[in-house]
Write a structure and sequence with these properties.
This protein has about 325 residues and is of the alpha+beta class. The protein folds into 3 domains: about 90 residues, Alpha-Beta Plaits, CATH 3.30.70; about 100 residues, Multidrug efflux transporter AcrB pore domain like (Alpha-Beta Plaits), CATH 3.30.70; about 60 residues, Multidrug efflux transporter AcrB TolC docking domain, DN and DC subdomains, CATH 3.30.2090. Helices cover about 35% and strands about 30% of the residues. It is built from 9 helices and 15 strands. The strands form 5 sheets. Strands 5, 6, 13, 14 and 15 form a 5-stranded antiparallel sheet that branches. Helix 5 packs across helix 9. Pfam families: ACR_tran (PF00873).
């Protein structure tokens, strides 16, 4: 007896089974993830290494080439490309589609670990990362202002917008593109330094020596115990300008004698623009299998409610939305 014959002889049973299948289909549809492209993890491994202060030639000769020579021997490599720039080396390894991503990542990590002995001692350890289809941002909120600096916009993006968006359901993470962080910038005058006989190493040693906070123990009594904290870190430009760099022949040379300190962005080499106006971008990354359209709708709704919490001169727009 086949299914067709059973359905004809027992119409009630076939009707009930059909209704059950429809119900399961409707229930499953509500839990079905919706996204523009399928979740496919390409077998691509990236190796990055930082060497602050080194030019592109040094990066290529001392970091990129030793890493490439070791990685080249891994089986299944389809292509190998690299970029050597100021202070940064990045190598992209693409494997054949038949290669397992986890196996490829482990092979690259082993080769990078072996090559580490040939790298400069003062460079940062190389990092190995895999391509992840679910780690691709689906939407970017752009913050712009004609009155505020990128430092102020970055602070608003971090403390206001990011905290609100990362609480949305099914959001894996929120990142800030083009973010500028506060840093104390020390500007040196080479002519004044030459006159005092001071080198940049002297300034570095003075900062390392004076701008430090060490554990100081505690004071114990019969019934109390007090923790001691030494306030050794400098926070203002005035404190850095008053830093003693050198003492000789009863003469004190402060940093203000050879340069100036000012609070500014840590990175001034790059920034983002949209329609010719500097901007800070907040990108939303979904969880695996999440409904991208539902997340995007929640972001739009949350940003409308958040408008009243933003300063009047800060405007937001959408740099891209992959759900549309």
């Amino acid at each position: 007896m086949n299914i067709s014959e059973l359905s004809i002889r027992r119409p009630v049973l076939s009707t009930v089974l059909t209704i059950i299948i429809l119900l399961f289909g409707l229930i499953g549809y509500n839990y079905l993830g919706v996204r523009e492209y399928p979740s496919v993890d390409n077998p691509i491994i990236s190796v990055s290494c930082s060497y602050p202060g080194a030019n592109a030639d040094v990066i290529e000769n001392q970091i990129t080439e030793p890493l490439e020579q070791n990685i080249n021997g891994i089986p299944g490599i389809r292509s190998l490309s690299s970029v050597s720039q100021q202070g940064q080396s990045r190598i992209t390894v693409e494997f054949e589609l038949s290669v397992d991503l986890e196996t490829a990542a482990n092979d690259v990590r082993d080769k990078v670990s072996r090559a580490q002995r040939y790298l400069p001692r003062d460079c940062d350890p190389p990092t190995v990362s895999k391509a992840d289809a679910d780690a691709t941002p689906i939407l970017m909120v752009a913050l712009q202002s004609d009155k505020r600096s990128l430092l102020e916009l970055s602070e608003i993006a971090d403390l206001t917008v990011k905290e609100q968006l990362q609480t949305i359901s099914d959001v894996s993470g929120v990142s800030i593109w083009g973010e500028k962080r506060y840093s104390m910038r020390l500007w040196l005058d080479p002519i004044k330094m030459s006159g005092y006989g001071i080198t940049p190493i002297d300034v570095k040693n003075a900062v390392d020596k004076e701008n430090v906070e060490l554990p100081s123990g505690s004071i114990e009594g019969n019934t109390t115990e007090l923790t001691i904290r030494t306030l050794g870190l400098m926070h203002t430009a005035e404190e850095f300008n008053n830093l003693i760099v050198k003492e000789e022949n009863d003469r004190i040379i402060r940093f203000s004698d050879i340069g100036r300190a000012e609070l500014g962005p840590a990175d001034i080499k790059s920034y983002m623009k949209m329609n010719g106006v500097p901007m800070v971008g907040i990108v939303v990354i979904p969880q695996p299998g999440a409904n991208h359209i539902k997340i995007a709708d929640a972001v739009y709704e949350r940003m409308e409610k958040m408008q009243k919490d933003l300063p009047e001169d800060v405007k937001y727009s959408y740099g891209f939305d992959n759900t549309k």
